[in-house]
Write a structure and sequence with these properties.
Layout (H helix, E strand, L loop, with lengths): L1 H22 L12 H4 L36 E6 L2 E6 H12 L6 H20 L8 E2 L15 H4 L3 H13 L6 E3 L2 E2 L4 E2 L10 H5 L28 E2 H9 L4 H8 L4 E2 L13
Parallel strand pairs: 1-3, 6-7
Antiparallel strand pairs: 1-2, 4-5, 4-8
Helix pairs in contact: 3-4, 3-6, 4-6, 4-8, 4-9
Bound molecules: zinc ion (ZN).
Length: 276
């Protein structure tokens, strides 16, 4: 009888309690509401509203190499997009995800920091996929917002080429660069802004210590104009914007928010401030 009770309790745990615990996990790696209003000019009244459009053509399936630290721009990655797996070159994924996650008019160094953070997340996911066969999904509440960059043509209107060029430059000019801790790609969390003026540690929010996700100062975030702020762990996008305006490089911004990390690739010449 007692044994039956124990077994029953174990079954109860498996059936209810564990899924409940899992449900308490963070919603969204990026945890930023896509904010098209911030990055898009108002749509002229006579413009046709954006339609879902054609999904990007499915590309031939190429198995990705697991365990690789850095994926190349041409590597095909599987993403869960609009209910099915989209196999897409990393480059195109980054164009779409950076666009969906950060206003295209944020400063260049902030966009580059965002591009490196998302590339790092893809590399992290290639070793720890969030969705089985797909590395990430395109739901911002679960993983990261994503849509092919071409889908912004309607909302960006005449500015499409200009805005798309900002995003593409941020991705292309950081090609192959990822953030590492102990030579492994990090789970590069980010969020909109931390209203308290400090980011939060992973231990504080999720109860698990992650050495590179510590609480750091982000004092400028108190000026964030509104909307959801996010979980507060990792890089503050609004803070990255302010640091970029203050003259920090994307590498300095990333090292500000991710404790004790390295960024692969060469330090770009001429960007290191004199005297440092
Ligand atoms: Zn997801």
């Amino acid at each position: 009888m007692k044994r039956t009770l124990i077994v029953s309790f174990a079954l109860f745990l498996a059936a209810f309690a564990i899924p409940l615990l899992a449900a308490g996990q963070p919603s969204g790696i990026g945890d930023t509401t896509p904010s098209p209003s911030e990055q898009s000019p108002p749509i002229p009244p006579d413009t046709v509203p954006p339609s879902p459009g054609e999904p990007s053509p499915l590309l031939p399936e190429t198995p990705i190499s697991t365990g690789a630290e850095s994926l190349g721009a041409d590597d095909i990655i599987p993403i869960l997009y609009e209910g099915s797996v989209l196999n897409i070159p990393l480059r195109d994924y980054l164009y779409g995800a950076v666009t969906a996650e950060m206003p295209a008019l944020y400063p260049e160094e902030a966009l580059k920091a965002q591009a490196v953070a998302i590339r790092t997340l893809v590399c992290y996911a290639s070793e720890h996929p969030y969705h089985g066969e797909a590395l990430l999904c395109s739901d911002w509440e679960c993983c990261l917002a994503f849509a092919p960059i071409e889908e912004n043509k309607a909302s960006w209107g005449n500015e499409y080429d200009t805005y798309a060029s900002y995003v593409r430059a941020a991705v292309d000019n950081t090609d192959g660069e990822i953030i590492t801790y102990l030579d492994e790609p990090i789970e590069a969390m980010f969020f909109s802004a931390s209203p308290g003026g400090r980011t939060r540690s992973a231990a504080e929010v999720w109860g698990a210590e992650v050495p590179y996700l510590q609480s750091v100062d982000s004092p400028f975030d108190v000026d964030f104009p509104g909307g959801p702020h996010g979980h507060g762990v990792g890089m503050s996008q609004f803070g990255a914007r302010q640091l970029a305006l203050d003259g920090l490089t994307y590498r300095e911004i990333l090292r500000w928010y991710y404790t004790g990390v390295e960024i692969t690739g060469e330090e770009p010449a001429g960007l290191v401030p004199a005297g440092s």
